[in-house]
Amino acid sequence: MDNQRVFVVDITRPILNRKKELMAVVGVVVDLNEISNSIFNAKSVAYANNRNFMITENGVMLVNSNSELVGKNLKDINKDEKITEFIKNNEIGIVDYSYNGVDNYAGITEYRVWKDVDTEWTLVSVVPKDEVYAPLVSVERS
Fold first, then answer.
1. What gap in Å lies between CA 42 and CA 39, rounded to an integer?
2. Of 101, 71, 106, 68, which is closest to residue 87 (Cα–Cα)?
3. Total domains, the chain
4. Which CATH number belongs to the domain containing residue 123 in this structure?
5. Reported confidence tier of residue 70, pLDDT bands at 50, 70, 90
6. Could you give the CA distance from residue 104 to residue 53 in angstroms, rounded to a whole number?
7. What own/partner pairs with CB < 8 Å and gap ≥ 24 does 62-65 have?
8. How much is the pLDDT for 92?
9. Mean of the pLDDT values across residues 113-135?
10. Residues 13, 28: Cα–Cα separation, whole Å
11. CA–CA separation, 125 vs 106, rounded Å?
12. Which domain of life does the protein's organism represent (predicted)?
């Protein structure tokens, strides 16, 4: 495709009759570049150093602003397993963790690819704590 790298995921689902017998299979090809464009859109970023990424239920990086990390496991990228444990326990919320010596908050939510399909991805949005608290420090100093 015009010498562009294209990242896609194929998701299939069986169609069963009332007797639970296989009648057909329906599938969709998800263009991860389109998802990437959406989550890295400047309008959806609240902080200057906000980093968003999407991972599979097994921790494999699907979408990341650093394309070299795509396909790698989060456990291999960051030894702080708080995000991985949060996801493994099917939790949604905010977790604090450290990466490259920086304390961060990570907002974690599930990303349902398709209704009634077991494929679950997780969207993670990371912001350095210092950046979150900067407005409070500014008010405190005035």
1. 9
2. 106
3. 1
4. 3.30.450.20
5. confident
6. 14
7. 62/7, 62/9, 62/32, 62/35, 62/121, 63/7, 63/32, 63/35, 63/36, 63/39, 65/40
8. 87
9. 79
10. 9
11. 5
12. Bacteria
Q: Encode pLDDT of 36-55 as tens digits.
A: 777 677 666 677 778 888 88
Stated as kind and residue range, the H or E segment containing 114 is none
Bin 15: left if φ > 0, else alpha if -120 < ψ < 50, else beta.
Answer: beta
**Which among 102, 44, 62, 57 has a CA at the least distance from the CA of 78?**
102
Cβ proximity of 99 and 78 under 8 Å: yes
Banded model confidence at residue 131, pLDDT cuts 50, 70, 90: confident
pTM: 0.72
Report if residue 16 sits inside a domain.
Answer: no
DSSP state string for 5-46: ---EEEEEEEEE-TTS-EEEEEEEEEEHHHHHHHHT-GGG--
Residues 10-36 pLDDT 10s:
777 888 899 999 999 888 777 777 777
- Whole domain around residue 79: which residue ranges? 46-141
Q: Is residue 7 part of a domain?
A: no
Given a contact cutoff of 8 angstroms between Cβ atoms, the answer to whether 28 and 11 are in contact is yes
